Prior knowledge:
Oligomer: single chain
Helix content: 40-55%
Structural class: mainly alpha
Number of domains: 2
Largest sheet: 2 strands, parallel
Radius of gyration: 21 Å
CATH architecture of the largest domain: 3-Layer(aba) Sandwich
Order of helices and strands: EHEHHH
CATH class of the largest domain: Alpha Beta
Amino acid sequence: MDLPEVSLVVILDADKEGFLRSETSLIQTMGRAARHSEGHVVMYADKMTGSMKRAIAEVSRRRSIQEAYNRAHHITPQSIKKAVKDVYLKGQHKKEKPGKLSIDLKKVSDEEIPVLIKELEAKMELAARNLEFEKAAEIRDQIGEIRKRTKK
């Protein structure tokens, strides 16, 4: 999700290790505030985890490199100037409606349905690992629609 002018990011339960609190996810989330010249991140946690330490260290390393570059090239950071748009309208220009299958199930045999679902599940997991959550959700919805239509 691209939200312009985000100046504060708060991460609750930052010490709960897992999918959305991994080092990579924390860096990604912290990066939302990094787009703003006065951006701040607050992480609420009971203890400092390894993922938190590594994410903070990486963000600090990147910031110091950026600040050195800015000084060397006489750059003054400025926030982006972009209008806030309704994120739900973003996908409405597409021809396919949400939940609509791009696969013609009439051309898929009953024996191929489980294979198709397995392939889609693998694509969904890959998208999630690559932090492409919207894509993963779309694939999840397609799997649900296939199961509903085929009653499998």
